[in-house]
Amino acid sequence: MTAPPSPATVQVVFTPSGKRGQIQAGKSVLEAAQQLGVDLDTVCGGRGLCDRCQIDQSIGEFAKFKIHSTADHLSPPSAAERQFFPADSPPTRRLGCQAKLRGDAVIDVPPESQAHRQVVRKRADVHQITVNPAVRLYYAEVPQPNMHEPSGDLQRLLDALEFEWGLSGLRCDFHLLPALQQTLRAGDWKVTAAVHLDSRIIALWPGLRTAAYGAAVDIGSTTIAAHLCNLATGEALASDGRMNPQIRFGEDLMSRVSYAMMNPGGDTDMTAAVREAVRGLIESVAAAAGVDPAEVLDITVVGNPVMHHLLLGLNPVELGGAPFALATDQATAARAGDLQLSANRGARVYALPCIAGHVGADAAAVTLSEAPHQRDEITLVVDVGTNAEIVLGNRKRMLAASSPTGPAFEGAQISGGQRAAPGAIERVRIDRDTLEPRFRIIGFDAWSDEPGFAGAGGVTGICGSGIIEVIAEMFLAGIIRPDGIIDGGMAAKSSRVQPDGKTWRYALYQRGPGAGEGVAVHITQNDVRAIQLAKAALYAGARLLMDKLGIDQPDRIRLAGAFGAHIDVKYAMVLGMLPDCPLEHVTSAGNAAGAGAIIALLDKTARLEVEDLVGRIHKVETAVEAKFQDHFVEALAIPHKTAAYANLRRQVDIPEAAAGGESPGGKQRRQRRRVAR
Amino acid sequence: MTAPPSPATVQVVFTPSGKRGQIQAGKSVLEAAQQLGVDLDTVCGGRGLCDRCQIDQSIGEFAKFKIHSTADHLSPPSAAERQFFPADSPPTRRLGCQAKLRGDAVIDVPPESQAHRQVVRKRADVHQITVNPAVRLYYAEVPQPNMHEPSGDLQRLLDALEFEWGLSGLRCDFHLLPALQQTLRAGDWKVTAAVHLDSRIIALWPGLRTAAYGAAVDIGSTTIAAHLCNLATGEALASDGRMNPQIRFGEDLMSRVSYAMMNPGGDTDMTAAVREAVRGLIESVAAAAGVDPAEVLDITVVGNPVMHHLLLGLNPVELGGAPFALATDQATAARAGDLQLSANRGARVYALPCIAGHVGADAAAVTLSEAPHQRDEITLVVDVGTNAEIVLGNRKRMLAASSPTGPAFEGAQISGGQRAAPGAIERVRIDRDTLEPRFRIIGFDAWSDEPGFAGAGGVTGICGSGIIEVIAEMFLAGIIRPDGIIDGGMAAKSSRVQPDGKTWRYALYQRGPGAGEGVAVHITQNDVRAIQLAKAALYAGARLLMDKLGIDQPDRIRLAGAFGAHIDVKYAMVLGMLPDCPLEHVTSAGNAAGAGAIIALLDKTARLEVEDLVGRIHKVETAVEAKFQDHFVEALAIPHKTAAYANLRRQVDIPEAAAGGESPGGKQRRQRRRVAR
Lengths: 677, 677
Known about the structure:
2 copies of one chain form a homodimer.
Chain A: E1 9-15, E2 20-24, H1 29-36, E3 54-58, E4 60-62, E5 67-69, H2 79-84, E6 93-95, E7 105-108, E8 118-119, E9 129-130, E10 135-141, H3 153-165, E11 171-172, H4 177-186, E12 190-196, E13 200-206, E14 213-219, E15 223-230, E16 236-243, H5 253-262, H6 266-288, E17 296-303, H7 305-312, E18 332-335, E19 348-351, H8 361-370, E20 379-384, E21 388-393, E22 398-403, E23 424-430, E24 437-441, E25 461-462, H9 464-476, E26 497-500, E27 503-509, E28 521-524, H10 525-549, E29 556-560, H11 561-566, H12 569-575, E30 586-590, H13 592-602, H14 604-616, E31 618-620, H15 626-634, H16 643-651, H17 666-672
Parallel strand pairs in A: 1-7, 11-13, 14-17, 17-19, 20-29, 22-31, 23-25, 29-30
Antiparallel strand pairs in A: 1-2, 3-6, 3-7, 4-5, 8-9, 10-12, 12-13, 14-15, 15-16, 18-19, 20-21, 21-22, 23-24, 26-27, 27-28
Helix pairs in contact in A: 5-6, 8-13, 8-14, 9-12, 10-15, 13-14
């Protein structure tokens, strides 16, 4: 085949976008893409220095485009391309800036070459991530100063960035000025600038630089997690978590607020502790990814209102009492240095907005990630901590509230309760006939009645998911009545039902031969009451929002956070923690708060989205709603006569006895359908 | 007189603006002013808490306004007014926010009640100052939080500032957030916010606050001056100056740049030194005015390029060699903390822009203050330092250049030269017949031939103005020929003309009985050459700009800075330092750089003006202009045959001898018209 005569213009079609047009022959594929509005990435601005603008030429006859695309319709590979691509690369792979158009061509832009590429998420039903970070890198070649045009080095840099990238009205962080002249000369007048929100230079390096990093930080009362991402590709490079060191000031949120109230300067101690932990985590994930913390240019932060305030250095005492006033309910911008975090000196921090005094930036992040506001179905999103943060709605209307569950679901205020940590009982089954329990502890796979459990080490207590399971199982076994009273009559059936003052208790774990070491764990009447109060509060909050929205049940329920990931939702439904919903539509949202922080890190438009969303969410304060009390009182009992309960009974192994009598064959069904772990 | 019936509207005329209109009866005078666009100040927003909105009611019949204004046309004085005004205040003086309109009224707004009041300057021919500061105080009463509307404290503050003052889109400095909630509560939800450029809250106090302060700082190579101003009234409260401690790194500019070049970290040492001095000066002027430095909210800075760069922490080495690249040629915004200055934590720093690598922010400030760009006449502004910064132009066109005069005018590179300091010879007269000198030294009023001079203490050297006078006087006395050669033939006339190697010198001061103590001061041929080179450079720079502008002489010449204030311009003209100009139009601009810094401090629109001005000034680099060399060579001689010189001769006592022969009666005229001090 001979080369076609050089036409004045050639026809170019880009796939997958389908954008096409007539382009002057001799222009590069990158120039053609820019002219036609095709999303083709570049950092070096088309100089063959970075390899971001890779494309594939599609060879052949394309009837639907009425175009014939042959190998010699692009200029031969340049020296720059030969350097980037090994000899065995597919011959169709080119650098868009080097390949010049000589004839009609079909050009495919692979996903990794799109500036605004999508990040693939594991689940399809959550917020999609487009890589469109707040901080971007721009390479520029800056004209040198001369005696005839005495402009400042900064102005020539700004002019170059405007000329090459269309960045007008840029400003430069003051801290960059001292090294500016040296940086320009060290790079022989070629530099890479990190620009925040297309408005401010926050970092500057000599020469070409293509990698920029960001950290998404999720500050829980118990654990803090950080995720390091490549801001250019969206790739998650490393994650790490550690205990929140504020635990030494108070196990749960309210005890930390109390610490701040009781101890002058206590808030600054807690602020210093959490900042140190976040600093260490960022260093840790950077090290894991082989990245210098100074290359971290952007940080997003989520957390409940108290954690959010303490990280930002805001005393949380106002959150400890009515009217629970936030210092700010809007997204907060700061610099990494303001928070003494490890990062580039110019790195920015973006704290997502809190929704209300008890509904934090974590709930905002969960909502952003779960994206109920993008769906027609009505979603109930529940994030259980010391308070349950509840969001309900769909694309038309969104509501949020916080329910005062207290820390019982976290194992606090439970006689044998503890945090979810190795040694804690997390799964419980009770034989319906013998009332003998079997259980599993965190950190060991075997059940307590399986061989080898003795090697499991000591039982240290029972965690949130364990307490829910044991109470649900006690109910299912008839040990607890629907009104929550431990039935002393069952003592006749098993010595595990024991008198405890004027009430009864259930001996879940007693030290003894063959059961390993550890502490005894009893479930007392007070423990049952604490869980009843907590679950009634959670239910009443959700019920209140459903009233406001005028619905009887949500289409789906998403349980966020560690609690949502660890509990067996069936047991939550048995206890009546959550409103009626088909069991298959009640699922864990995993670490949705962290996912929301990552979305806000990678996509600046998601920041506008969550700010707008938080503004639109109608906040319901349960404490001033009379109906909340009514719902709460109604929800104290364990439900057992509703249609939904009957439905649930068919899915879970619920004895008729618990509901007032055992049906024939009940035991057989139980054995057949032993609740799956 | 009985009160008129309450009309639905009343007619109000404000003087001196003449603004008038129909106002609903019952509205306050302040509301009427706001409605009619009358400039009436208020900080408290009309609550009778501050006394900024004082007005006078004009009583009587005002035919030209067709209005009858009687005492009962305003409501009686309120309790707030009785508190502010003593019993003997004129009864017409009222608070605009308290006085309610009941009938037609003529209201006079005194100058001190105008928000944008004028500051009276000593000279009429300079830039006027309107008080319109970048930082303003706003008082607001913030709604308290409640359970039904869970907005953040910050948002309610921002809403209040928008509602009461129309400040929309405000942001808040991050450093204010930690104390925000406490401040709001400490002030019982009444606060005063300092707002920068109507866009950012930079400080917040509980309750009402009406005083805000700013500092204007002028950093010279030799001395640093600071001026404390009341940002609300424009009043200058205190000024102070001190030696620039950088002198220990180098006496003149270029030796400091050399120090930075030769010593790694030398620039940061000099930066630390100048910042410490500025910090001390701000503390000093604040103390003198009885103001806490934390009440200083805004700071403007001017200085030559090297001083400007060192204060901002920018290494000045690039200014030490071609092409003399500035780090930035635009105005630089920073925070006081960035420069370790004493001020409010949120205080802003505004460094005026440099014009070019040798024409600094001091020249920009001088130009702002002198305002040649507002005049039709063409002004030559000269600021002499190590380099002479020269600005020439009028409202149509502005040019600037720097001439490499070297430090001779500052007394450096002169055998007996020194800085202007006590002990330095600053004035010299030489008897035309005997060649005997008389002189005066800094710090003592008597001339050397007057009684009591012996008590003057030691002569320590000769300063810039002294060296110019002695060389001009030597020329006038015939000791120096027009070509600058010291005429050895004059040794016959006086033993003060002495051989000095192969050349001659003039013994200005020799230790001896009756002449006090001190060092001998000789004027050598090298000294004359140094001044010739310096004055030729200055002249050639001015001449070059005049060429570019196409003029033969400027309409007026303004000499800025200490040099301009100390030299006797007649002698400068005798030596030919400056282009021809009627002597009465050659005047000292005083501390014009400091004045420019004050203007930029008090009036934010002057900042836009100077930024625009600096952008419009055409920069001429003398080093690359061939004509500069030509002018320089031509200007080396001391002029004596031009028309302008003949004219000058009529004003100054110039002997015909110097010009080639003494006319009859010359000596008599000399005696009659002895040059005035």
